[in-house]
Protein: LysR family transcriptional regulator
Amino acid sequence: MRRDDMADLAAFAVVAEEQSFTRASKRLGLSQSALSQIVRRLEERLGLRLLDRTTRSVAPTQIGQELLSTLSPMLRDLDASIGALSETKDKPAGTIRITTVEHAARQFLIPALAKILPDNPDVKVEVEVDYGLKDIVASHFDAGVRLGEQVEKDMIAVRISPPVPMAIVGSSHYFKRHPAPSTPRELSRHVCLNLRMPTSGTFYEWRLSRNGKAVHVRLDGQLAFNALGPIRDAALAGLGIANLPLDQVHEFLASGQLQRVMADWSEDLPPYYLYYPHRRHGSAAFRLVIDGLRWRNL
Structure:
């Protein structure tokens, strides 16, 4: 394969992934016209139409998608190999991209990174908070953080937290209007503040257990959010009851702004894990982040 062919194929892959000449040109540092000429030249050389173009959208044809499916893993492996070869400094360097949920970011990632980053100025970490289940390879993340049960079996997983205690809470103002529940059945009479999961489109289920009896329920309510912070704020405002990580509400329990109910029914969530694909290169920066996040039961 000629050097020009490889460069043109790489440019096509970026356009197909971004489905936009505008975004692809910014990513590659080329003008849109130059990038369009590169793709047109590649199509002419192959005798194949790789992209469908309209005034509003760009998408790979069926042949283009087949080429992209073969090409993308090869380019990622090449980038990883070059990155590993180029990392010759004594100090770790490079950018690590992580997708995570809000709670894990606040309670585990940020405290761990506070110990790592000040002494490693050449390491950069980009954290994206998203409750959806990302394909980290397709989305160009180096790693993800989710509850252990949500991690795909083909990923390498590193535990970064203990189990997560939960607490069902509400404000005193709310409980003046609604008698506190004591059983899962009584929850159906309450305004339950829900977390909408973007991947499934359903509400996150409340996990309850007592004396070995587990009850997992999805409850209706007037309010639903896509993050835990607003759910806690709504509970503080007296708009309903919420099932939240205990570490997110303990200060409000201590101050009396929130009251805990059904403590005997609370069930811990599984630990969080950092996960990444087997093909992820073991750069010094990546190893540093993994080691810094690793949970140690001391």
User: Anything to note?
Assistant: The chain has three domains: 3-86, 94-158+271-293, 166-265. The mean pLDDT is 88. The chain has nine helices and 14 strands.
